[in-house]
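User: Please predict the structure of the protein below. I'd like the answer in C-alpha coordinate form so I can feed it into my own downstream comparison script.

Assistant: Understood. Taking the following sequence of 225 residues as input:
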Amino acid sequence: MNFLSHFYFERENINDYIVMGVVLPDLIKNADKSWNLNPQKDEYLYRDVPEYDALLTGWKRHLEVDRLFHSSEFFRTQTAILKKMILPAVETGPVKAFFLAHIGLELILDHLLLTRNIVDTDSFYRQLQSAHSESLNGFLRLARLPDQHLFDKFLNDFISSRYLFSYEKIENITYSLNRICMRLWADPFTQAQLDILTLKLEEFKQQLEYNFLLIFDEIGAELNK
Protein backbone atom coordinates (compact mmCIF):
# COMPACT_ATOMS: atom_id res chain seq x y z
CA MET A 1 0.00 0.00 0.00
CA ASN A 2 1.04 3.59 -0.58
CA PHE A 3 1.31 6.52 1.85
CA LEU A 4 -2.32 7.57 2.25
CA SER A 5 -3.53 3.99 2.37
CA HIS A 6 -1.20 3.30 5.31
CA PHE A 7 -2.29 6.55 6.93
CA TYR A 8 -5.93 5.44 6.63
CA PHE A 9 -5.44 2.97 9.48
CA GLU A 10 -3.96 5.70 11.72
CA ARG A 11 -6.14 8.60 10.56
CA GLU A 12 -7.51 9.11 14.08
CA ASN A 13 -4.22 8.48 15.86
CA ILE A 14 -2.91 11.61 17.62
CA ASN A 15 0.56 10.13 18.14
CA ASP A 16 2.65 11.81 15.44
CA TYR A 17 5.47 9.30 15.82
CA ILE A 18 3.23 6.30 15.15
CA VAL A 19 1.93 8.08 12.03
CA MET A 20 5.50 8.74 10.91
CA GLY A 21 6.37 5.11 11.65
CA VAL A 22 3.62 3.68 9.45
CA VAL A 23 5.01 5.43 6.37
CA LEU A 24 8.70 5.41 7.33
CA PRO A 25 9.60 2.17 5.47
CA ASP A 26 8.34 3.68 2.21
CA LEU A 27 10.00 7.03 2.91
CA ILE A 28 13.30 5.21 3.42
CA LYS A 29 12.97 3.27 0.16
CA ASN A 30 11.93 6.38 -1.78
CA ALA A 31 14.96 8.25 -0.48
CA ASP A 32 17.29 5.46 -1.64
CA LYS A 33 16.02 2.12 -2.93
CA SER A 34 19.24 0.37 -1.84
CA TRP A 35 18.64 1.09 1.86
CA ASN A 36 17.34 -1.88 3.81
CA LEU A 37 16.54 -1.14 7.45
CA ASN A 38 15.07 -3.73 9.84
CA PRO A 39 14.55 -2.13 13.26
CA GLN A 40 11.89 -4.73 14.05
CA LYS A 41 14.71 -7.27 14.41
CA ASP A 42 16.25 -5.35 17.33
CA GLU A 43 13.20 -4.16 19.23
CA TYR A 44 15.05 -3.92 22.54
CA LEU A 45 17.04 -0.94 21.23
CA TYR A 46 13.96 1.27 21.01
CA ARG A 47 11.85 0.38 24.05
CA ASP A 48 13.30 2.85 26.57
CA VAL A 49 12.45 6.02 24.61
CA PRO A 50 8.70 6.65 24.06
CA GLU A 51 9.21 8.31 20.67
CA TYR A 52 11.42 5.46 19.46
CA ASP A 53 8.88 2.92 20.70
CA ALA A 54 6.08 4.75 18.86
CA LEU A 55 8.09 4.85 15.64
CA LEU A 56 8.77 1.12 15.92
CA THR A 57 5.08 0.45 16.60
CA GLY A 58 4.19 2.30 13.40
CA TRP A 59 6.95 0.57 11.45
CA LYS A 60 5.68 -2.88 12.47
CA ARG A 61 2.12 -1.82 11.66
CA HIS A 62 3.29 -0.90 8.14
CA LEU A 63 4.84 -4.34 7.64
CA GLU A 64 1.68 -6.09 8.83
CA VAL A 65 -0.63 -4.00 6.62
CA ASP A 66 1.52 -4.74 3.58
CA ARG A 67 1.54 -8.44 4.43
CA LEU A 68 -2.24 -8.53 4.73
CA PHE A 69 -2.75 -6.48 1.57
CA HIS A 70 -0.44 -8.49 -0.65
CA SER A 71 -1.88 -11.81 0.52
CA SER A 72 -5.50 -10.72 0.04
CA GLU A 73 -7.92 -11.90 -2.62
CA PHE A 74 -8.63 -8.24 -3.36
CA PHE A 75 -4.99 -7.68 -4.34
CA ARG A 76 -4.87 -10.77 -6.53
CA THR A 77 -8.16 -9.99 -8.24
CA GLN A 78 -7.63 -6.28 -8.81
CA THR A 79 -4.04 -6.55 -10.03
CA ALA A 80 -5.21 -9.20 -12.51
CA ILE A 81 -7.96 -6.87 -13.74
CA LEU A 82 -5.63 -3.91 -14.06
CA LYS A 83 -2.91 -6.01 -15.69
CA LYS A 84 -5.33 -7.04 -18.42
CA MET A 85 -6.57 -3.49 -18.91
CA ILE A 86 -3.10 -1.94 -19.30
CA LEU A 87 -1.68 -4.55 -21.68
CA PRO A 88 -2.09 -2.16 -24.69
CA ALA A 89 0.23 0.29 -22.89
CA VAL A 90 3.04 -2.25 -22.44
CA GLU A 91 2.94 -4.20 -25.72
CA THR A 92 6.40 -2.86 -26.48
CA GLY A 93 9.15 -1.74 -24.14
CA PRO A 94 10.70 -3.19 -20.98
CA VAL A 95 7.91 -2.70 -18.43
CA LYS A 96 6.04 -5.79 -17.27
CA ALA A 97 2.27 -5.49 -16.89
CA PHE A 98 2.13 -7.09 -13.42
CA PHE A 99 4.80 -4.75 -12.06
CA LEU A 100 2.86 -1.77 -13.35
CA ALA A 101 -0.50 -3.12 -12.17
CA HIS A 102 0.82 -3.71 -8.64
CA ILE A 103 2.01 -0.13 -8.21
CA GLY A 104 -0.89 1.32 -10.18
CA LEU A 105 -3.43 -0.32 -7.87
CA GLU A 106 -1.75 1.16 -4.81
CA LEU A 107 -1.68 4.66 -6.29
CA ILE A 108 -5.32 4.45 -7.39
CA LEU A 109 -6.30 3.53 -3.83
CA ASP A 110 -4.54 6.68 -2.61
CA HIS A 111 -6.33 8.66 -5.32
CA LEU A 112 -9.72 7.42 -4.13
CA LEU A 113 -8.99 8.12 -0.46
CA LEU A 114 -7.86 11.63 -1.41
CA THR A 115 -10.63 12.57 -3.83
CA ARG A 116 -13.36 11.23 -1.54
CA ASN A 117 -11.91 13.08 1.46
CA ILE A 118 -11.74 9.86 3.44
CA VAL A 119 -8.38 10.84 4.90
CA ASP A 120 -7.27 14.33 5.95
CA THR A 121 -4.14 14.76 3.88
CA ASP A 122 -3.37 18.13 5.47
CA SER A 123 -3.36 16.43 8.86
CA PHE A 124 -1.07 13.72 7.50
CA TYR A 125 1.52 16.28 6.46
CA ARG A 126 1.20 18.19 9.75
CA GLN A 127 1.88 15.03 11.73
CA LEU A 128 4.89 14.16 9.60
CA GLN A 129 6.26 17.65 10.13
CA SER A 130 5.76 17.36 13.89
CA ALA A 131 7.58 14.00 13.99
CA HIS A 132 10.48 15.24 11.85
CA SER A 133 12.63 15.79 14.90
CA GLU A 134 15.77 14.76 16.71
CA SER A 135 13.85 11.77 18.05
CA LEU A 136 13.35 10.54 14.48
CA ASN A 137 17.06 11.09 13.80
CA GLY A 138 17.98 9.11 16.91
CA PHE A 139 15.72 6.24 15.89
CA LEU A 140 17.27 6.14 12.43
CA ARG A 141 20.80 6.22 13.84
CA LEU A 142 19.99 3.15 15.92
CA ALA A 143 18.52 1.53 12.80
CA ARG A 144 21.82 2.24 11.02
CA LEU A 145 20.51 4.61 8.34
CA PRO A 146 23.42 5.02 5.86
CA ASP A 147 23.04 8.76 5.19
CA GLN A 148 21.07 10.98 7.58
CA HIS A 149 21.69 14.15 5.57
CA LEU A 150 20.32 12.63 2.36
CA PHE A 151 17.23 11.34 4.14
CA ASP A 152 16.61 14.68 5.86
CA LYS A 153 16.72 16.45 2.51
CA PHE A 154 14.33 13.92 0.99
CA LEU A 155 11.89 14.15 3.91
CA ASN A 156 11.94 17.96 3.87
CA ASP A 157 11.18 17.93 0.15
CA PHE A 158 8.47 15.28 0.58
CA ILE A 159 6.68 17.32 3.24
CA SER A 160 7.08 20.74 1.65
CA SER A 161 6.06 19.63 -1.86
CA ARG A 162 2.80 18.06 -0.57
CA TYR A 163 3.16 15.82 -3.59
CA LEU A 164 0.37 13.43 -2.64
CA PHE A 165 -2.19 16.11 -3.47
CA SER A 166 -1.18 15.67 -7.11
CA TYR A 167 -2.86 12.25 -7.02
CA GLU A 168 -6.19 14.04 -7.42
CA LYS A 169 -5.59 13.80 -11.19
CA ILE A 170 -5.20 10.45 -12.91
CA GLU A 171 -2.64 11.86 -15.34
CA ASN A 172 -0.38 12.58 -12.38
CA ILE A 173 -0.57 8.94 -11.37
CA THR A 174 0.63 8.07 -14.85
CA TYR A 175 3.46 10.57 -14.36
CA SER A 176 4.39 8.94 -11.04
CA LEU A 177 4.36 5.46 -12.57
CA ASN A 178 6.59 6.66 -15.37
CA ARG A 179 9.04 8.19 -12.87
CA ILE A 180 9.14 4.95 -10.89
CA CYS A 181 9.85 2.96 -14.05
CA MET A 182 12.56 5.41 -15.06
CA ARG A 183 14.52 4.34 -11.98
CA LEU A 184 14.82 0.92 -13.60
CA TRP A 185 14.78 1.63 -17.33
CA ALA A 186 16.03 4.61 -19.36
CA ASP A 187 13.01 4.95 -21.65
CA PRO A 188 10.15 2.86 -20.25
CA PHE A 189 7.31 4.41 -22.28
CA THR A 190 6.56 6.42 -25.37
CA GLN A 191 4.13 9.32 -25.07
CA ALA A 192 1.51 7.28 -26.88
CA GLN A 193 1.87 4.51 -24.30
CA LEU A 194 1.52 7.02 -21.46
CA ASP A 195 -1.67 8.38 -23.02
CA ILE A 196 -3.11 4.85 -23.22
CA LEU A 197 -2.06 4.19 -19.62
CA THR A 198 -3.91 7.28 -18.38
CA LEU A 199 -7.09 6.18 -20.15
CA LYS A 200 -6.86 2.67 -18.74
CA LEU A 201 -6.18 3.90 -15.22
CA GLU A 202 -9.29 6.07 -15.42
CA GLU A 203 -11.35 3.07 -16.58
CA PHE A 204 -9.94 0.96 -13.78
CA LYS A 205 -10.69 3.64 -11.18
CA GLN A 206 -14.30 3.77 -12.29
CA GLN A 207 -14.84 0.04 -11.75
CA LEU A 208 -12.94 0.05 -8.45
CA GLU A 209 -14.49 3.06 -6.72
CA TYR A 210 -17.70 1.29 -5.71
CA ASN A 211 -16.08 -1.35 -3.52
CA PHE A 212 -12.50 -0.26 -2.80
CA LEU A 213 -13.16 0.32 0.91
CA LEU A 214 -13.77 -3.40 1.37
CA ILE A 215 -10.03 -4.06 1.50
CA PHE A 216 -9.58 -1.39 4.16
CA ASP A 217 -12.40 -2.92 6.21
CA GLU A 218 -10.87 -6.37 5.81
CA ILE A 219 -7.39 -5.29 6.87
CA GLY A 220 -8.74 -3.14 9.69
CA ALA A 221 -10.64 -6.11 11.10
CA GLU A 222 -7.47 -8.22 11.05
CA LEU A 223 -5.44 -5.48 12.75
CA ASN A 224 -7.99 -5.17 15.53
CA LYS A 225 -8.14 -8.88 16.39
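That's the full C-alpha coordinate string. Residues 125 and 187 are 32 Å apart (CA to CA).
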